[in-house]
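Researcher: Next sequence.
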Amino acid sequence: MSILFDPTAYENIKVVFEGIVYDFDLNGDIAIIERNDFINLADMSRIYNLTFNNKNDRQKLVTMKIELQANFQQLVAEWYPMNVDPGANITVHFFINTKLDEVLERRISKFLKKQYEKQYEFEQITNVYQDQRITYHFILKKHEDITESNIDDLHEIVTETINFGGQILTML
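Model: Next structure:
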């Protein structure tokens, strides 16, 4: 007797997302520098993210991360009636790892807001460390969840993230 595993919508989305990003890595467009797959047993949620740099960014000035997040309701919506669709939230992160003057910081912020204005919520965090290092973190959370019905959007999200990261790199 064999037992079949029926992956959740989240697992299917994760596999497609991972394949897209790794294809860009294999083509030499980016270098993946971190991969995380978290399961929170306290609230039964999942987080999966991939962090990468543009291959031409030898100083690692711009780091990008794309993150899938699914809460308990999104994970079990396939098996039990819930008020949410099975799927995941998606968040795009841009980290600038060099000091920016005020004009350039506003320019990058304005650029990202313009690119993502209608479909994403925008947040910016500036971190100043004891050794006087400064990093800028731009967070873009997609309003619409990724589900199996719009899974094709993942390719566009990854492509845009890589392209916009490259454009930010040229601004520096």
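Model: The mean pLDDT is 91. The chain is about 35% helix and 35% strand.
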